[in-house]
Amino acid sequence: xxxxxxYRAKLVSAGQAVSVVKAGDWVxxxxxxxxPVTLDKALAARKDGLKDxxxxxxxxxxxxxxxxxxxxxxxFCYNSWHLSGYERKLSDQGxxxxxxxxxxxxxxxxxxxLEVDVAMFTVAPMDAQGNFSFSLTNSASKAIAExxxxxxxxxxxxxxxxxxxxxxxxxxxxxxxxxxxxxxELPVIAPAAVSAVDKKIAAIILDxxxxxxxxxxxxxxxxxxxxxxxxxxxxxxxxxxTEMLVDAFMTMAKxxxxxxxxxxxxxxxxxxxxxxxxxxxxxxxxxxxxxxxxPIDYANDPHTMAQNDNLVTINNCIEVDxxxxxxxxxxxxxxxxxxxxxxxxxxxxxxxxxxxxFICFTSTFTDxxxxxxxxxxxxxxxxxxxxxxxxxxxxxxxxxxxxxxxAGRSTWERAERIISIAHPAFCEELIKGAEKxxxxxxxxxxx
Length: 447
What we know:
Blueprint: H1 3-10, H2 14-18, E1 26-28, H3 38-45, E2 53-57, H4 65-68, E3 76-80, H5 85-92, E4 97-98, H6 106-112, E5 118-123, E6 131-133, H7 141-147, E7 150-155, E8 169-171, E9 177-180, H8 196-206, E10 214-217, H9 221-231, E11 239-240, E12 244-245, H10 247-254, E13 270-272, E14 274-275, H11 279-285, E15 291-293, H12 296-299, H13 302-305, E16 311-316, E17 319-321, E18 326-327, E19 330-331, E20 334-335, H14 342-351, E21 356-360, E22 364-366, E23 373-375, E24 377-378, E25 396-399, E26 402-405, H15 411-420, H16 427-437
Parallel strand pairs: 1-2, 1-5, 2-3, 3-4, 5-7, 7-9, 10-11, 10-16, 12-14, 13-15, 16-21, 17-24, 21-25
Antiparallel strand pairs: 6-8, 17-18, 19-20, 22-23, 25-26
């Protein structure tokens, strides 16, 4: 049977495709821009005939019909690997549960531990060889498809095709059903607003990047500020090895800063695992020979990324304590996002020859309700806060007040260095906290 004959034989309506879902099944929606739209609507329409269908997804960038039609969660139970802004609101309402993970382990979780009855996710159209590109999401797509008892693909002609990589497509022979979707516009993420404080922090990081360095950027205003400043700087011959491909990389590449030619591995290629950003970014990714989409167990493997000398990793956090523990995903017990790959890159950056791993944050934030300013540096993390980065893996912390290198430092050295980058209004309070914890030596107290 030829490829088009196989295609036509497997082509069904969305309603026919989701009819295979049974009560009690585990259904996988994949991650980010791979999450289904037409199939999600069709599954939600089956609500009254289903009970206890558990759905895994992550970084949902648009509303999920299975959640919206079932606020009592009698029919569908949605779970997320990493909370988007939308999923955070669902979590606050008790409509989404977080799945803890270190991102590089995601494919292994599927291959080794998880049950998948039905996988349904969005891909680009089939090519002449019978392959469907995973497009903008290659985190664990192949692993999910391998583990699933039934694989349903939803085609979106707007999804770009990634030119190269590994485990970045699925052949029609491994697919059970195909649904030609409604081809909706792809959700976009607007660039985060960059403040004067963000620019000050970015300038500190920029001074620590050299020509030929390989860059990883997280999402948010601070990494965006760094990328923009690199594009406007004299730096040259940079490389890209990241989990998330964001607009800042495109900006740097178009400015001629990224060539990937100084990398020790994947020379000439910018490595990423998933992508989300602007419409312009999606167009730039399409058939771009300078990019390679890799599964997350490659992109986020610390020992793989560390083969690149001078790897610089740049990520945000929410709060830090005086021991050097970092939370980047919760505010107390409230889940904000997820661990993602921050710990992966924190480790890989330190392992790299000449590498540096930066966790950056504004020293304070203002409570929107009261207008009161609070320090992001605390003597100890709030009750129930989740430690994203343990103190044992701490490297560089950066605020607008400076940079603190914590690697290999004792508890009192850490306390001194962390307090030195706190907002001056909170330093005395933090010193008292350190004294109470028995980690203050008073050798570096500011006058």
